[in-house]
Amino acid sequence: MAHQAHAYHMVDPSPWPLTGAIAALLMTSGLAVWFHFHSTTLMTLGLILLLLTMHQWWRDIIREGTFQGHHTPPVQKGLRYGMILFITSEVFFFLGFFWAFYHSSLAPTPELGGCWPPTGITPLDPFEVPLLNTAVLLASGVTVTWTHHSIMEGERKQAIQSLTLTILLGLYFTALQAMEYYEAPFTIADGVYGSTFFVATGFHGLHVIIGSTFLAVCLLRQIQYHFTSEHHFGFEAAAWYWHFVDVVWLFLYVSIYWWGS
Amino acid sequence: MYYKVSGVTGKLTGATAASAYSPQGLKATVPSQAPPMIFAVPTKVVSETGSVAHYMGINKVPELQKIFQKTDGAPVHLKRGVMDKMLYRSTMGLTIGGTLYCLMALYIAAQPRKPQ
């Protein structure tokens, strides 16, 4: 008994776009209220609403795809385009911060001492923790590829183990970076060096946390038999995002940590 | 220093403490009795093996597919019944309440401060 004569997905009416938009309103106005009136209530409310929206919206997508079968090949193609476009937009986001870094570091002003790193800044040794961080992320790129092949070959136990290892490596990176932030001899307030360093690496760290969370959701789904050897786009999207995070780190490491020291 | 007679040269040579204390090694190299030979294991049904099929839980997807494909007209965000409804209502409550609180806060913030 066919309800539609096409392979596309006409979604059920959903309240989550509205709740998400309101969450954005509450977070932004909440930020202004925090700055001027020292109250974090509105902003916290916005954050809670954001988390509720993300949980229910993505839960519904899993229901529509895995349980209701709406993710036909043309629909999956659209989802692939969507993820690629989103990652491309994130590439441009990071490009801006790299532009800022190179703008300031290629022609250092007299106020900085006419040199880079600026006078008075002791940069981190690129061959200590930052090099370890590079190895950790590269290893996690290997383990996530291992996971993909395990899923495609129907190796359930290996997929679960390699995906767990990938997430642990991501958490290890985050912990190492947090320790580096704490121990750093310079702060975000230390001129343009501090600004470019902490904003670029800070946003990268946020993306590592987002990527690790995405992979963790995929791990739960893999344990619950959501993925088949032919159809596991949710995992592929997470893996693409993870490789993107890894590549951004490589650029950060070479530009800011290594060349910039 | 420990000593042994070398098996190669037949002369006295140095040895480690481990080989001095147990010259034939710690594990018996030849078993005293041959292990029982098993030619065939009675076949087990796949659902009983529990080795791969039940690694970290059983597959509940077919059962969930039945629940979500019920033709009860419910939209996907309410398809699972009471839990979905409660979560939706609390989210919507926060949305509407939050909007009103936000509009009030913005109205108050827009009021000019009293000159001092």
TrEMBL record, chain A:
<dbReference type="InterPro" id="IPR033945">
    <property type="entry name" value="Cyt_c_oxase_su3_dom"/>
</dbReference>
<dbReference type="InterPro" id="IPR035973">
    <property type="entry name" value="Cyt_c_oxidase_su3-like_sf"/>
</dbReference>
<feature type="transmembrane region" description="Helical">
    <location>
        <begin position="240"/>
        <end position="260"/>
    </location>
</feature>
<feature type="domain" description="Heme-copper oxidase subunit III family profile">
    <location>
        <begin position="4"/>
        <end position="261"/>
    </location>
</feature>
<protein>
    <recommendedName>
        <fullName>Cytochrome c oxidase subunit 3</fullName>
    </recommendedName>
</protein>
<keyword id="KW-1278">Translocase</keyword>
<dbReference type="InterPro" id="IPR024791">
    <property type="entry name" value="Cyt_c/ubiquinol_Oxase_su3"/>
</dbReference>
<dbReference type="InterPro" id="IPR013833">
    <property type="entry name" value="Cyt_c_oxidase_su3_a-hlx"/>
</dbReference>
<feature type="transmembrane region" description="Helical">
    <location>
        <begin position="41"/>
        <end position="58"/>
    </location>
</feature>
<feature type="transmembrane region" description="Helical">
    <location>
        <begin position="79"/>
        <end position="102"/>
    </location>
</feature>
<feature type="transmembrane region" description="Helical">
    <location>
        <begin position="197"/>
        <end position="220"/>
    </location>
</feature>
<keyword id="KW-0812">Transmembrane</keyword>
<dbReference type="GO" id="GO:0004129">
    <property type="term" value="F:cytochrome-c oxidase activity"/>
</dbReference>
<dbReference type="InterPro" id="IPR000298">
    <property type="entry name" value="Cyt_c_oxidase-like_su3"/>
</dbReference>
<keyword id="KW-1133">Transmembrane helix</keyword>
<keyword id="KW-0472">Membrane</keyword>
<feature type="transmembrane region" description="Helical">
    <location>
        <begin position="16"/>
        <end position="35"/>
    </location>
</feature>
<comment type="similarity">
    <text>Belongs to the cytochrome c oxidase subunit 3 family.</text>
</comment>
<comment type="subunit">
    <text>Component of the cytochrome c oxidase (complex IV, CIV), a multisubunit enzyme composed of 14 subunits. The complex is composed of a catalytic core of 3 subunits MT-CO1, MT-CO2 and MT-CO3, encoded in the mitochondrial DNA, and 11 supernumerary subunits COX4I, COX5A, COX5B, COX6A, COX6B, COX6C, COX7A, COX7B, COX7C, COX8 and NDUFA4, which are encoded in the nuclear genome.</text>
</comment>
<dbReference type="Pfam" id="PF00510">
    <property type="entry name" value="COX3"/>
</dbReference>
<comment type="function">
    <text>Component of the cytochrome c oxidase, the last enzyme in the mitochondrial electron transport chain which drives oxidative phosphorylation. The respiratory chain contains 3 multisubunit complexes succinate dehydrogenase (complex II, CII), ubiquinol-cytochrome c oxidoreductase (cytochrome b-c1 complex, complex III, CIII) and cytochrome c oxidase (complex IV, CIV), that cooperate to transfer electrons derived from NADH and succinate to molecular oxygen, creating an electrochemical gradient over the inner membrane that drives transmembrane transport and the ATP synthase.</text>
</comment>
<keyword id="KW-0496">Mitochondrion</keyword>
UniProtKB/TrEMBL annotation, chain B:
<comment type="pathway">
    <text>Energy metabolism; oxidative phosphorylation.</text>
</comment>
<dbReference type="InterPro" id="IPR003177">
    <property type="entry name" value="Cytc_oxidase_su7a_met"/>
</dbReference>
<keyword id="KW-1133">Transmembrane helix</keyword>
<keyword id="KW-0999">Mitochondrion inner membrane</keyword>
<dbReference type="InterPro" id="IPR039297">
    <property type="entry name" value="COX7a"/>
</dbReference>
<dbReference type="GO" id="GO:0045277">
    <property type="term" value="C:respiratory chain complex IV"/>
</dbReference>
<keyword id="KW-0812">Transmembrane</keyword>
<keyword id="KW-0809">Transit peptide</keyword>
<dbReference type="GO" id="GO:0097250">
    <property type="term" value="P:mitochondrial respirasome assembly"/>
</dbReference>
<feature type="transmembrane region" description="Helical">
    <location>
        <begin position="87"/>
        <end position="110"/>
    </location>
</feature>
<keyword id="KW-0472">Membrane</keyword>
<protein>
    <recommendedName>
        <fullName>Cytochrome c oxidase subunit 7A2-like, mitochondrial</fullName>
    </recommendedName>
</protein>
<comment type="similarity">
    <text>Belongs to the cytochrome c oxidase VIIa family.</text>
</comment>
<keyword id="KW-0496">Mitochondrion</keyword>
<dbReference type="GO" id="GO:0005743">
    <property type="term" value="C:mitochondrial inner membrane"/>
</dbReference>
<dbReference type="GO" id="GO:0006123">
    <property type="term" value="P:mitochondrial electron transport, cytochrome c to oxygen"/>
</dbReference>
<dbReference type="Pfam" id="PF02238">
    <property type="entry name" value="COX7a"/>
</dbReference>
<dbReference type="InterPro" id="IPR036539">
    <property type="entry name" value="Cyt_c_oxidase_su7a_sf"/>
</dbReference>
<dbReference type="GO" id="GO:0002082">
    <property type="term" value="P:regulation of oxidative phosphorylation"/>
</dbReference>
<dbReference type="InterPro" id="IPR017267">
    <property type="entry name" value="Cyt_c_oxidase_su7a-rel_mt"/>
</dbReference>
